[in-house]
Amino acid sequence: MKKFGRRVAGLSLIGALLLVAGCNTVAGVGQDISGSARAVQRSL
């Protein structure tokens, strides 16, 4: 179970780094989060 927690933490960190790398500005991060939220709402 310890390995699973480390794996989840590692994947979360990698995901966060990719998100920040993909958005060069704070405004870009906000737009991406808004777009993701809209996509989730549409799918529900």
Automatic annotation (TrEMBL):
Instruction: Give the protein's recorded name.
Output: Lipoprotein
Which keywords does the record carry? Lipoprotein
